[in-house]
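Researcher: Go.
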Amino acid sequence: MLASIGLAVLLSTSGCAPQAHVTLSDILSNSELEHFTAPIERTADLCGQIQGCVEAWSTQEATFRRFDDVAAASRYSAEVGADAFQSRYITIDFRGSAVSEAERRSIEEVIEGAHQSD
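Model: Structure:
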């Protein structure tokens, strides 16, 4: 809940329409969010040859990628399969993650909250 409130404050003060303009950096570096351990920006090595990938971060919980359009995010999410979650431009890759199902849902809710005012 606190994470959702923190994200709502971040989005309301950013002055941007959240669906296309919120970056992973905005979300993962927000000190009020407790869901993300040791976020590291890794765009160069994690986007690589992935079409449309414009930003990537890793945390102890998952790997996050932001795409330049929803279709590219959807294609990547489909490739990852059941270990993926997509919220418009952003995908979360939970492959190899040790998070519980409840933690996963909580992380997904934080990312989904970035697009609430769409």
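Model: Confidence is low (pLDDT under 50) at residues 1-18.
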